[in-house]
Structure formats: C-alpha cells, structure tokens
Amino acid sequence: MEIELTPRLAKKVYEADGGSYCAWSPSELPMLREGDIGAAKLSLEKDGFALPNYSDSARVAYVLQGNGVVGIVLPEKEEKVLPVKKGDAIALPFGVITWWYNKEDTEFVVLFLGDTKTAHKRGEFTDFYLNGSNGIFTGFSTEFVSRAWDLEENVVKTLVGKQTGKGIVKLGGTNLPEPNKEHRDGMTLNCEEAPLDVDIKGGGRVVVLNTKNLPLVGEVGLGADLVRLDGSAMCSPGFSCDSALQVTYIVRGSGRVQVVGVDGKKVLETTVTAGKLFIVPRFFVVSKIADPEGLEWFSIITTPNPIFTHLAGSIGAWKALSPQVLEASFNVDSDTEKLFRSKRTSDAIFFPPPK
C-alpha cells in the first residue's frame, strides 16, 4: 500500500481585515487523518484580534514570527494574559479558551499542531467561537440568551447585532488587558532561549519540549522539539521507538529528506523548504541534510516524553551490536566490520559537513 508523504504548504481557510487562518487538509496530506493530527496557522496584522474560541483538540502553539498577546482560560480558572514572542511554545490542553492579539507593526504568526482523536473530523481542528457572526452566542434564541445572562431583550439584540466579524477582526481604539510576564510561568517555553538538550559544533542544536520543562504538555499528550541544523550538516537516520508519529514543520532554510519504511523501501525523497509540513509514520526511519543556508524545523511527537533511536553516530544502535552479529547480518568479513565500527565514534545525532 502506497503512503503519500509529500510535504505540503497550508491553504487559506478564511481571511479578514485583521489577518488570516490557514490549515493543512487531510485530503492533501492523508497522514493527518491516519495519525489523528491537525495542523493550522494563524497570521495577525497590526491590531488583528482572533476572537475567543476553544478547539475540539489538544494542541501545541508555536510562535513563528513577531510578538503578540494571548489570553488563556483553563477550565474553571481565571484568565491569564501572556506576552509571547518568536520561539515561544505554548501548551493548550483540551477545553482551553484562547484569544490572540497583535499590537505591533510586524505580522504575528502562530503555528498550531495537535491531536485530533477527540475532534469532530479526523485530521482537522474545529474551532468554536464564543463571539462573532459564527459565535455560540448568535446561535441561541433571544429568549435563551435573555434568560441565561439575565438581560433585557433589546440588550440581547444589540449584543447579537454588533457581532459582524468572523474569527478575526481588526480593532481600533480598544484597550485589551495588558499582558503579565508572570503569567508565562508554567504556560510557555521559549525554544530559542531554553537550555540546549543537544549542541554539536558545526552540526546542530536541539531543544526538547517535555513534561520536565513544561509540565502542561503532559495534559496535552504531546512532546515537541526545535531543531536547528547547520549548513550542509546531516541529522542521523533515526526513528521514534515508542510508536509515536513525528509531525514536522519547516521553520527556516531548506534541505533534503529521505524516509525509509517497511521492507527497506524508500517512501520519501524530496527537498523541503520553509512553510512545508510533513509527517513520518510510526517506526519509519528519517534523515535530513541541510542546504548551505541551514535548516530549522519544529516538530510535535505524539507522546509527551518521546524516545528516539538513532542508527548512526557514536550512540547509534549499530554500535551497540556485537562485532559477530554485525559480521553475520551484513555478511562481511571482520576487517569490513571493524572499518564500519571505527567511523562516527565521536559524532552523535548531527554530523558536520565533510571537510
């Protein structure tokens, strides 16, 4: 059975004066449906305001560009208003209400990746807006709204009639709550500033998002990482050994990707560029080589504390096998086995370009 893994760009779902919302479709990227994964991107222009809403899926948000403000209401908790910037990852558990605002001149762009096992449509997020022309408020009859909020009928009609925007609006002269830096604690982690989990000179760097540095991802059920591969460097072939899917968004640069699956069959060989998304199926082996300008990607892994097995390098799985096993399985003599084992004794995970 053929598996379609071709990396794709997001397509615009809707656009308004304040910005736009794009998403990846399972019809173009079938692995979204297969893996119960959703992916979308929010872009806000200056004074763009994404109206309060909740999703049918747990998600991780990652700020790709700019600075902004996010309001978060966890179930039965008070609103937290966070200042967020490029590199911030925010865990958004199931049932959380959010709004987003950009008061800067630079466009504010946020990526959403998440688990759609609870979603109405597999491989897609469905957002429920509290306000706006498509909001929950407008769906109830005047009588129900009047009784629920103890309002006069004329006030209800005014409230409903004023909600002409859909999803995203542009504000003018409205004072939203000021963000509180203390609200960032336990809610977000900046992957560009966090301590590095892996740092290979001339190779690359990794920051892993897990329950240790952002406990809230445990509620989301997802882990994540930001990987920056230096120019012409290589990421070791490897796979997720805990049956997790890896969903990868290319943040910057370009490079070559190969994925090998069942029966040693190469199922993907392509060049990836910024803005593209692709998914590596469970247990499939993936490797990447950056172009000269380097390659940066943000991934979610469908477990909060992912475990990877690398096949090459000083910590490669083949290095752990005994010489006799390698000789027998490769069907080579001891000299060839020794040559194979003698390479990559100091490099792990990332390999700098050949000199």
Give a brief description.
With 355 residues, the protein is mainly beta. 14% of the residues lie in helices and 41% in strands.
Tell me what you see in this structure.
The protein has 355 residues and is mainly beta. It has eight helices and 23 strands. Strands 14, 15, 16, 17, 18, 19, 20, 21, 22 and 23 form a ten-stranded antiparallel beta sheet that branches. It has a seven-stranded antiparallel beta sheet with strand order 1-2-3-10-5-8-13. The longest helix has 9 residues, at 153-161. It is elongated, with a radius of gyration of 23 Å. It starts with 10 loop residues before the first strand and ends with a strand.
Q: What's the N-to-C terminus distance?
A: 41 Å
Number of strands: 23
Mean pLDDT, nearest integer? 91
Largest sheet: 10 strands, antiparallel
Shape by Cα distribution: elongated
State the helicity in percent bands.
10-25%
| Tally of contiguous helical segments | 8
- Strand share of the residues? 35-45%
Structural class by helix and strand composition: mainly beta
- Cα-atom Rg, whole angstroms? 23 Å
Question: Unreliable segments (pLDDT under 50, ≥5 consecutive)?
Answer: none
Question: How would the blueprint of this fold be written?
Answer:
Elements: E1 11-16, E2 19-23, H1 31-35, E3 37-44, E4 48-55, E5 58-65, E6 67-73, E7 80-85, E8 88-92, E9 97-101, E10 108-115, E11 127-129, H2 136-139, H3 142-149, H4 153-161, E12 168-170, E13 188-190, E14 198-200, E15 204-209, H5 217-220, E16 223-229, E17 234-240, E18 246-260, E19 266-273, E20 277-280, E21 285-301, E22 308-310, H6 317-320, H7 323-330, H8 334-342, E23 350-351
Antiparallel strand pairs: 1-2, 2-3, 3-10, 4-9, 4-11, 4-12, 5-8, 5-10, 6-7, 6-9, 8-13, 14-15, 15-16, 16-21, 17-21, 17-22, 17-23, 18-19, 18-20, 18-21
